[in-house]
Amino acid sequence: MNIFRLTGDLSHLAAIIILLLKIWKTRSCAGISGKSQILFALVFTTRYLDLLTSYISLYNTFMKVVYIGCAYATVYLIYMKFKATYDGNHDTFRAEFLVVPVGGLSFLVNHDFSPLEILWTFSIYLESVAILPQLFMISKTGEAETITTHYLFFLGLYRALYLINWIWRFYFEGFFDLIAIVAGVVQTILYCDFFYLYVTKGEHAFHQQLLYLSQS
Q1: Which Pfam family is an annotated match for this chain, by its short name (predicted)?
Q2: Are the C-beta atoms of 169 and 175 separated by less than 8 Å?
């Protein structure tokens, strides 16, 4: 495993932990899209079904279990424990507009027409757009708590690092996965504007830009 993949995994884990801690410490899931979290839970479930059929390493198994467990824990906190604080009125993105096309695409474009491979491909495609309900919710309300912007930043960083990981693997291992690379590029692009504002202009400008987007 190269340093870019390891750092990407840690950034991904940091994003998930930041979100869980935000919900637990504030006892609120205000500003968080439950639909995005359901999509991420679906992503991890369909991607890591190989937990039942193959073993790669202790690290690999541990991270897969953590991702799945944290995803469902987040969904539970949003829709069960702190349901009263969930802003469903603003979390209105039609998730089926993502799931249905992605499902169809995974049947048409995949590496191997087998159940596990199709589900893995589905998870890759879905992850690339799963954050859209969250971004839509933020642009609609014009508000984002600091902890939520950090969550988005680390998610975007994770994807960017994974793109570098694919480049590294191509040059040093001769490994190339077009499906994963294209999906990763799409996902990274979705974060570009948030990356720029977060890094160059600070959080105040970030919030001001969100307000502008919601009013335009």
Answers
A1: ER_lumen_recept
A2: yes
